[in-house]
Amino acid sequence: MITCVVRYTIDPEKITAFERFGKRWMELVQARGGTHHGYFLPAEGASDEALALFSFPSLAAYEEYRHRFGRDPEFIAADRIRDDSGCVLRYERTFMRPLLPGDLAAADTASASGTAAGEPEPLL
């Protein structure tokens, strides 16, 4: 699994437009094989930073999704919300590999058997 973390610098005066933009992208990611973990909007402190996290089963699956940018009318319309409103001033993407609570049980089992998580058991 690969998770894309998008860090946004937003215009705090245009938070409503950013929320519309975020809701639309959550729908598109879910409809195209990804899992959207949500947008995280300013609450206290810095008022111009927001985050989005979404995952795809593999980098190849993410690349298939990205191939739609600039081509798929729904993707273009979603980006138009951002572009027309000016709600996003800047953004950057980082790709991460999540360690999730369910992964802990697999790691404990592998540790007890002397193998790394995800590695096959040795043949005896």
UniProtKB/TrEMBL annotation:
One Pfam family from the record: NIPSNAP
SUPFAM superfamilies per record: Dimeric alpha+beta barrel
Residues that span the membrane, as ranges: none
InterPro entries on file: Dimeric_a/b-barrel (IPR011008), NIPSNAP (IPR012577)
Domain NIPSNAP, first and last residues per copy: 7-99
Record protein name field: NIPSNAP family protein
Coiled-coil segments: none
Domain of life: Bacteria
